[in-house]
Amino acid sequence: MELMYASTRNAEEKATASQAILKGLAGDGGLFVPTRIPSLDISIEKLAKMSYQETAYEVLKLFLTDFTEEELKNCIDKAYDSKFDTEEIAPLVQADGAYYLELFHGPTIAFKDMALSILPHLLITAARKNQVKNDIVILTATSGDTGKAALAGFADVAGTKIIVFYPKNGVSPIQEKQMVTQKGDNTFVVGIHGNFDQAQTGVKEMFSDQVLAKELDAAGYQFSSANSINIGRLVPQIAYYVYAYAKMYENGVIAQGEKINIAVPTGNFGNILAAFYAKNMGLPVAKLICASNENKVLYDFFTTGVYDKNREFMLTSSPSMDILISSNLERLIYRIAGEDAGKNAELMQSLSTKGSYEITPEMKAQLSDFYGNYASEQETATAIRSLYEKTGYVIDTHTAVASEVYRKYKKDTGDTETKTVIASTASPFKFSRSVMSAIDKKYESMSEFELVDELSKIGNVAVPKAVEELRSAEVLHKTVCEVQEMPQVVKKFLGME
Question: What CATH code would you report for 92-110+237-461?
Fold first, then answer.
């Protein structure tokens, strides 16, 4: 049975999976959501014996129903191959009573690889399916990780171009170096004088600019998105939670049907929304622990029912979570509004005009699956140091936010029995300065690559290839612009000016 996708802001706008992937964003600025959440139709016993690739197929086939088995398996095989530095793709590591799901073994050492390795293949397959003649221009904003992962995924993919905007001083040195050294004739990286939210708003405005769309079409181009607003990003993320549960069952950590908690460091809300979808597919999940850094707009929302972005924007040591507009939260709002697109559109309009909205008590009552909290910069550093001192295991700053919030969850609820998976979203090597100074202040005088070598030594892990290659990589992208100049910069790169 074909699964259709609807816009969160207009119940009349429907699309197949491949059309939703191609468009990225609905015509009215809404996000595409499945009209129903399919149920997992395979037993945990069978899943326990499967590889990551096989598990991904079992999840993707339920959501992307207009793709054939051959097309999906081809996309999966091309995505999850030797680009990953571990055969399991997403290993589970037990440390200090929690299970860290390492989602950073891909080419850019962050969890975005899990979805952005497959998205280009889904997109090109979708374009063929829908007889698209134009070249696809991937337009994306990044708070650090999406950019590089998307660039790596789309570099030199025929029929595509990719343009990434990032906040010039709002990402880590390694994150920036990864982006500005990206090879590929079809890639373009631009720093903006502004923050991530401004970059993302600029990108969304270009998507909904009908005049620009006509100009692009005349030049043989059309926009699509690699941000987590694209359903082709969200669906592959569901797979790793299913995989983690099956592996815990296979390893005898949990009994059949036993519920687990999932803790996720959260910025744009896509990764934890994927866990929510996994729960709604029938995966036995107790609590979804939503971990924020000092930009705690989501913690405040779960506590009060008010989403308010009118606050100081904090630059933290976990930059991928330095976000005040969590785009994917809209998909959850639509759901708790009873899939009422009109009600959701009203709330999003309020966010756009006033910078805030408040949900009803009935909607708030439906958030009982979630526990929200946040970690300060000091608490994040302490979480890194204490886990290292106890176990020798080194985690990055984003994972540390989730680890600390999980500690608070146990303290607040007394739930110390439920086995908990913590989404480990980036390699510590990506944030080596913050990680090493959290472990010991003596490292603060070292250069970026001295820190990388020292981290390898103390953590007893090899330096990832993605970092090793940066030592001598040439800077290829030097464009910087003002927020209002973004459309001109895009047209110039595409040869339209």
Answer: 3.40.50.1100
